Fold this protein.
Amino acid sequence: MKKILTKFEHFQYFYPYTVAIVGAKFGEKINFMSAAWHTPLSFSPPLFGVLISKKRFSHYIISNAKEFTANFLPFNKVKISAQMGRKTGKEIDKIKAFKINLLPSKVISSPILEDSYVALECKLIEIRTYGDHDLFVGEVVAVHHDEEAFKENGVLNTKKVKPLLYLGSDMYITTDAKTLKHMLPD
Ligand SMILES: Cc1cc2nc3c(=O)[nH]c(=O)nc-3n(C[C@H](O)[C@H](O)[C@H](O)COP(=O)(O)O)c2cc1C
């Protein structure tokens, strides 16, 4: 029997989700936060969305920078997700405090994270409020990816990279390459 809730505090029973470390540089300030609520929105133009609560320092930084990068980390860098996702840039400089290595972007001014196997450079084109989160829509203007992390068809090589997946409540998990299946309909 399935349990049915019509009153609930959350509905994230569909997790796991990959974690995007999103952030930007505004003036001299660089700040990143963890975001599980992110999504591609369009191939053409290439659009990527991330949902950010108004409470986050990143909300202020990204809306002013008018650009952001979204960085995807391998499972062995899980600590960075906890650091970016449980501490606020309102109180500490997370980049300095946690010794995060940055690399310059190609098109925009905000940096990417060196530890990411994929990083998207995005120019902010719209912010739209949905309830208690704001959807930040970015046009993807550059994509960085580790060549050895992907197969020729662009699919993640799960023998080489273990993606970081978030289960909620500070719990993380990754994939097992042995479960890989190529499936087509009959
Ligand atoms: C794994 C993980 C995923 C998260 N996903 C989101 C998210 O999608 N949107 C959001 O607003 N906050 C999310 N958070 C919370 C922020 O990352 C957290 O509040 C962070 O400390 C904000 O930092 P800032 O104040 O420096 O921006 C997430 C936290 C964790 C640990």
